[in-house]
Design a protein that fits this description.
This protein is mainly β. The chain has one helix and 20 strands. A hairpin with a 5-residue loop joins strand 2 and strand 3.
């Protein structure tokens, strides 16, 4: 079954505590506009081997979901685990790929070489910026009768599971679900810029069931993403949908059969690829069909192989689509 509850905390960072030991966490103390206090417990090490977490940070995160986030400083907000809102799903919302992430140790000698250092780089910047708001997706706990065990505020209250929450190993399979992934989004309002940090365990699968979030077996070739979405015309001059196109690239060194492959939009509408194969290094420009949605308010494009497994995917925002005739490059 999925997490007991899911949502996002919107608050200001006021303190940080780095932990070491058997189950270390990166602890963040936050406060919302109503002076409610929270602790975000961010995993920095796995209890299973390999123990180093996978990490990726986007310095200029652009995704349609940021427009759906609750107001700055609004505290805990429960989210529906479904597309089209502020919920995270690393796979279905084309948030991050396994290839983008890298394993990082929880703590190591020297500067800028472990997960706590990398989190410090962004979270301390948010702590020092009075215009910055932290959004932490995950599962809540509290309020508790006792003071918080790390920062001492009362009642104890906070959020955890701030990492990918699907494709788990059998030991943690009960936490699997779709549209319930955790993450850290930081909005620096003075710069009008988003920074996003995503975490996952090396034991988690990146091919999961659309209903349960449980791990699926995946053919080997899907891991290399040989076919990629590289561009799209989402807002043609005059607004005519008949001129919307998607451009694919074969990044491999050989011809790839496209029989049975499809493209999917954010609403899971699909359309088949119109040719039987694509040669090495070649591009393919595909006109969007009538039921394939490339909306001007933001959207996504996902490539699915004949097994229905995701090979590659991209997103674009309303800002990307704001200029008629401009090709969005991914």
């Amino acid at each position: 079954m999925p997490l007991n509850s899911y949502g996002v905390l919107s608050a200001r960072v006021i303190d940080i505590r780095r932990e070491t030991g058997d189950t270390p966490h990166y602890q963040i103390h936050l406060v919302d506009n109503d002076d409610r206090h929270y602790r975000a417990a961010v995993n920095v090490e796995s209890s299973q081997q390999p123990s180093d977490l996978l990490y990726f940070a986007a310095d200029n995160f652009q995704h349609p979901l940021t427009a759906a986030l609750p107001p700055a400083g609004s505290g805990w907000n429960k989210l529906a685990s479904q597309p089209g809102g502020a919920a995270l799903d690393y796979l279905r919302a084309n948030i991050v790929t396994r290839e983008q992430m890298r394993p990082v140790p929880p703590d190591a000698e020297g500067p800028n070489n472990d997960l706590a250092d990398f989190l410090d780089h962004y979270v301390r910047r948010a702590q020092q910026d009075p215009t910055a708001t932290a959004y932490l997706h995950g599962e809540p706990w509290g309020p508790e009768d006792t003071p918080d065990k790390v920062f001492g505020f009362q009642p104890g209250n906070g959020v955890h599971n701030i990492h990918m929450n699907q494709g788990n190993s059998q030991q943690y399979q009960e936490d699997d679900g779709v549209w319930q992934d955790g993450g850290i989004l930081l909005h620096f309002a003075a710069e009008n810029r988003w920074v996003a940090v995503f975490l996952a365990f090396q034991t988690q699968s990146w091919h999961t069931d659309d209903e349960t979030g449980h791990a699926l077996p995946a053919p080997e070739e899907t891991e290399t993403a040989p076919i990629r979405v590289v561009a799209a015309m989402v807002n043609p001059v005059g607004g005519g949908r008949e001129n919307e196109t998607i451009t694919l690239l074969n990044t491999s060194d050989h011809t790839i059969s496209l029989v049975g492959w499809t493209l999917a939009d954010a609403q899971k509408n699909t359309m088949p690829l119109p040719v039987s194969d694509i040669a090495a290094g070649q591009t393919l420009q595909i006109p969007a069909t009538d039921d394939f949605q490339l909306g001007n308010d933001g959207g996504q494009i996902t490539i699915l192989n004949p097994h229905g497994l995701k090979v590659h995917g991209v997103t674009y925002t309303a800002e990307h689509a704001s200029t008629e005739g401009r090709t969005v490059q991914f």
